[in-house]
Design brief:
4 helices, mainly alpha, globular
Length: 79
């Protein structure tokens, strides 16, 4: 079962490091999330959020975040 608080963090928390520093976790590219899945997620909350977002993205479920984006005024990224 998905934790609603974790889903909200995906659309509000920024990536604190690396190539995509400052980008909202839900807006990270799939290939970047897949790289973490192959190489290993960081420890702690950040790693958990990245793993959750990778799972959502990999399974084509990113639309689940749209109501939360609207609630927080965060538009979906343009690809």
């Amino acid at each position: 079962m998905m934790n609603p608080e974790k889903l909200e963090l995906l659309i509000t928390r920024e990536m604190p490091l690396g190539k995509y520093k400052g980008r909202i976790i839900a807006d990270l590219p799939g290939q970047y999330l897949n790289w973490f899945a192959r190489e290993g997620f960081p420890h702690g909350e950040l790693g958990g959020l990245l793993a959750l977002m990778q799972e959502i993205d990999h399974n084509g479920l990113s639309e689940l975040l749209e109501p939360l984006r609207a609630k927080h005024g965060k538009p979906a990224p343009r690809h």
